[in-house]
Amino acid sequence: MTMNLIRILDPDTGETVRVCHGPSPTGVCPMAGPDGVVPCAGLLIAPSRPDPEYWPLPIPAGYRHCDVIWNERARSGLNKAEQAREQWQAGLTREVQRVRYLASAKDPRYRKMTERELEKTALWRWRLTGEAQSLRRSEEKNERQAEAYLAFVKFRRTSGSSRPVSLTARNSRTSP
Question: Helix 68-104 crosses helix 130-158 at what angle (to 10 degrees)?
Answer without folding.
Answer: 160
